[in-house]
Automatic annotation (TrEMBL), chains A, B, C, D, E, F:
Protein's name according to its UniProt entry: Acetylglutamate kinase
Class of this enzyme: transferase
This protein's encoding gene: argB
Annotated source species: Dorea ammoniilytica
Sequence ranges assigned to domain Aspartate/glutamate/uridylate kinase in this UniProt record: 28-266
Reaction catalysed by this enzyme: N-acetyl-L-glutamate + ATP = N-acetyl-L-glutamyl 5-phosphate + ADP
Family recorded in the similarity comment: Belongs to the acetylglutamate kinase family. ArgB subfamily.
Sample GO molecular function, one term: acetylglutamate kinase activity
HAMAP family according to UniProt: ArgB
Keywords: Amino-acid biosynthesis, Arginine biosynthesis, ATP-binding, Cytoplasm, Kinase, Nucleotide-binding, Transferase
């Protein structure tokens, strides 16, 4: 067999190896929180969209939830707005909210465009469409930080109806309160709430870290599997800090409310989503139910 | 009968008068091009949204297509961008396109929000979602005026699927070309193309004029009905000028391609849509097929 | 604005006011017991049919149940039959039953015809069709009063199937017992049983009185809302007499078995149905669950 | 084998013989014009209803169209109405029309009741329900004979919708004109129009004669098969007279408009319908397309 | 009436007598275990297939489960294989299994062919198709008797899907274990497991005996009805022996798990299935729930 | 990046490369004629089944048509039957037909079993099931060669119904004539007829040769693309001989009757199907419409 042929056969084998995974996740909902470097680096961006599109084409039901943090900051400067802060937190006043919505809308349609260019039917939503995300005002230690919303209800029917018509929904985290005012929502929170409401099989966070560490200062302590009782213990013991704390709380919340598996993936690795789903290569940290094992019924 | 009761009975009679119209347009597609003053004045805005929502609730299938002209100009200034012109036409270069898309997206979701607040399921789309609007680059007398698109194909399936799931679609006129670049589209053109693709029963333009005049300088020459052969004659004779010319060409195009009736309505009159549909009060100018009469089979 | 225009705008406002009600009762079943003067006066008749047809067209699911008392009496005389009485009650012997069925059938198709003339698909049923109403013989204080039936079972599937095919069902109160003999049924009883079996949102009785009075001799004591515990108390205290007693018992029974709201309307007021549903004008007496308030979630 | 067993086996064989016919008419529409003696004699009545019910249960789609001639005459006398005649034809004035509708309605529900008692879901319709039969006034040699209608349009959707919900439709020949006035229709005409509109597989007339004779005075000339060109020839030659002439014209009309086979059956023979469909016993006269043979593809 | 006519009318009466049974079993699942003489005698074979095909055509949902015992033995000899025995039981080693599968497949398609020739859509399955029958290895008193399977799970979806597409499923008793090895299954066991999984209305065993006897040596003690507590008592008392014991246990198991009625029929009587279902002639023994009576609600 | 990680990323890239192909063949029917070495070598067998199962899982609609030549020969010897020949062709007499059907049935269920073991719902059919393949007797130069059938009609509904229920159909080439006798069919013919009847996107023959050669004696003359006019020219010029001639005629026939692309693949190359569909590696010979190019719209 010539070397060329060998290469082709290797490719065929890779496809065949994907077979049990394709079968396992057939028609399952997979929520992908898309953010961080993977949203800034054009190359990584393309990889993520390819991954999600492939998931859709082989029969899964992926839903993308994205943020737009850095792009919002860029526009705030561009427009020359003066940021206000309370307790060190940026206040989302009316003009900031307006601009944030515009930027998130732009990012949203850009993702739609990328998915469409790969031949898959995408639809871009904010939490306003079909009343998808209903929120109440969120306070930070009792202080008013403006139009920041806490999700009260996800109108999952909207997403089921769109999945039913074979759309790939792409959601930006904007919501409405009962008086139909606009609120910004933390994208991790939105992804988690949507995964819960859809009883998702998987919720995957694309982040800028390798995963959860026992000791954040020691890369060698990266944890590949974490059952939720362990996760809670870690939090109690104060191992978990910074941005990871709310994220891990979201993970625990998701697992306790019907999501089967949550993953904190390193979005800086190209195709990290495919690697997680189609190979037995551990990418980042998987949060599991107590008693579950990662590769048992993966 | 006391006076109070009399008032109530009068109200009941108004509802009953609507009966034949509700029946006539049951399950029919009605495309509303929403623009002009009716999009600026908060009071008129509310009236238009109430009208369209009512149409939806009584069983019609309205689709809103909107522009965002004045708001785009406001943001262009705000951001401090320098406008370029060719042949007196604004050039849509990349930064302008990006900003226009952001503004249109904002306007789009604001309309979604208003419809949702009235209890109807809306969904905001640009022509990117589901590949709704496919365009090619449009030139102005052979000059490159940037990312201005001419619609080649409307993917009507997307709209049918959303109507099927009982959404009220709200569309902003952004499209993609075959290389998946973003283009701005004239909102009148988009409304007309969508009405054609959906074989709409009605296409209504909300404008800032009373209608078509035989002599634009003489308000007394307002025409309430215009069969398309007359419309063509008017154009040939040079009676029609300014912004009305392309609009009237759009009307003719729509009627010749399957739309039953086109209306140029005065969007400055509150509830002009309801008045046109539910009463025999002539509002603005109706463009008809040759041989049709306005109130014959309305 | 000229006076004419003002009038049109007022009309538009009336339609817009109906919006929240149209939304609230969308796809809800509303059973209308049609009888009394509203069935005799040609003008009132037309109003009732217009009202029900409008309810159908704007998306509700009305079902009409009608009697035919006066018309039956007219035909009994016409044919020269000799009425028999027991305990002062007319006995429905075989010839009377035969004639009653003929008259009710005639009235039934006449109503179908009126609805059809307004462009809505009606279908006239007796309780024989599809085995809709199953009865047993009813005795009056142990005395045999002939073919008078008490409903044992409503075959609600029949009505759901017809609603599913977008018919407006019009039912006359004739039923079959287990041996397939024909029985006459009190129309109020039939309406109540059907409303229960369909879990109707509303059951409205068109009557010839203004509503329930605390003191029937004092029109000023008309009650606009009555929670069922109050209704029971009134009955116990003997405030309620005559034909109102069984009607009120029917109302209580309906509310206790899944119907949300029951109304005793004055059928002599034109469009009383529309007024009740689309305005906040109290027409007649509403029977509510304990704790409910009339205009809270109307 | 004992004699008893022999009998049982013979019964099984009869069922097995029905197999090819059950298969052939599976899901086919069969219109039965029910009238004459078979509607008067209680014993024959029961047989007809059993037959049609069996056809329904084994998977055919029968539709009954019935008249009520003798019963109408009986009631005209009973009520003491004075018949008017023009050219020897009874005039259907308003009171006659009213009574006729009542009687037909009574007969209609009686048939519904008989079918229901055999466990099959029947629904009784007049041509008013769902706008089933649209008519214009029919004149007799230019003379006004009152409310006698000629069918212009059959709204077949109504029947398809009811068949779809597994009802056995039973239709009485009453129709509405464009002004929604009530008209009486000849039952043969109604059956023929319905069979045409439904593209029925079979149209069977239950009559009081054995079939078509070459020579009406000679029973030996009974014709068992008649191709339509022969039928036309017979008519031209004047062989056909009396009530048979319009019936035969109806048969020809049906065959020329999509009905596969028309039968003139002797309704005085019990189970004539079953015999015609499930055996090769010729009952009455079959009207065929030219070139068809009766038992070729039966 | 001539004698010929009399005969036809008798036939019609037989069909009419079938009416209540056709109605009773409409859309009900009936599992027929087909085996014994009825599978060997060409004449009886034809009768069984006619019976099942008729059941299908009149709206029941029959499923055939068949064995192939004698034909397997014939081929074992033909191929010259040496049978092995343990405890007097034939051992199903690999070559025997292979041959058994081939023979059962042949018998299966032969039955398909017979049903198809009667114009009904049949499909032949083994328990491999769609993973219909999942088994574990069965031991005989702890001894390994080869590839003999015990059913663990019936994938009823497969059969519902095929019934939904109007197929008549014909199943041969082959199954797969969790490692996807092939096993032979006792046909009685397979029929019983399928009847349970489908909540069949009836399970009928075609056997070579008249039924269950109180005293197997005295034909006069044939029992026509047996409630399951009696059946259990008979077994305890040792009245039941030989091949009847496992069969009766299967019957009890079926009744206790959702099957309404089980019949042990004498397959040597032509059309025994039709006789059992369409007449009140007791054929063989019916196993009933305690308290049920045979002809009460048959 | 460590070497391990590199490997994983390469795998992800392979999956991504498959994306356009997965999209292109989404919901398309692909008929695979399975035979030759690929059916004998256990290793190759596993590869083919993996390939087809993968095609099913990623959303294609594959149908397998298989032969069983060598296995039939093996059994003919085993049973000790004496082969008869006419014109050098084996005669399919009744005993041979019986045995062939048994062997094909065994092979068929073995393939079902393999597909099931990969978690996909398979169903094994012969042309008898649902009357799938209707044949007439085929003669060889006028000589009777026994039960060899020529396909007259493919009942494609059967396959559409099974695809609709998400089965992977596996068909063995047995058919019935109008008298319901069993016939053997050439598997290539069956695959071709099925591909035509289903308007398949692709028909792929797994063979034991590399493809079509211009000069069969010179491996260097392998043709990778052949437009049908060229194919016909090759045949006329006598370049094509042996078993390739009828195969190539089948290819031409398929292309001329609605199949988009036919492939003669070398079944001895593992995963040849995947390679053909998911890579741009030319495997074997593709037969195209005139004017088509292989990789233009692949």
């Amino acid at each position: 067999m010539d070397k060329n042929m060998k290469q082709y056969l290797d490719k065929a084998e890779v496809l065949i190896e994907a077979l049990p995974y394709i079968q396992k996740f057939n028609r399952k909902v997979i929520v992908v929180k898309y953010g961080g470097s993977a949203m800034v680096d054009e190359n990584l961006k393309k990889r993520v969209i390819e991954d999600v599109t492939l998931l859709k084409l082989v029969g899964f039901k992926p839903i993308i939830v994205h943020g737009g943090g850095k792009e919002i900051s860029r526009w705030v400067s561009k427009v020359g707005m003066e940021p206000k802060f309370i307790n060190g937190l940026r206040v989302t006043d009316e003009p900031t909210m307006e601009l944030a919505e515009m930027v998130l809308g732009k990012v949203n349609k850009e993702l739609v465009q990328m998915v469409e260019s790969l031949g898959v039917r995408a639809i871009g939503l904010s939490g306003k469409d079909g009343g998808l995300l209903n929120v109440t005002k969120k306070y930070s230690n009792g202080e008013d930080i403006g139009y920041v919303g806490e999700i009260q209800k996800v109108n999952a029917d909207i997403l089921w109806d769109l999945l039913d018509k074979d759309f790939l929904p792409i959601v930006c985290p904007i919501g409405l309160d009962d008086s139909f005012h606009t609120y910004n929502i933390n994208a991790d929170d939105a992804a988690c709430a949507i995964a819960r409401a859809m009883n998702a099989e998987k919720l995957a966070f694309l982040t800028d870290i390798e995963g959860v560490y026992k000791d954040p200062n020691d890369p060698a302590t990266l944890i590949s599997e974490l059952q939720i009782s362990e996760a809670k213990e870690f939090i109690e013991k104060g191992y978990i800090g910074g941005g990871m704390l709310p994220k891990l709380n979201n993970c625990i919340d998701a697992i306790e409310n019907g999501v089967s598996r949550v993953h904190i993936l390193d979005g800086r690795i190209p195709h990290c989503l495919l690697l997680e789903i189609f190979t037995n290569k551990g990418i980042g940290t998987a949060i599991l139910k107590d008693g579950d094992e990662m590769y048992s019924n993966k």
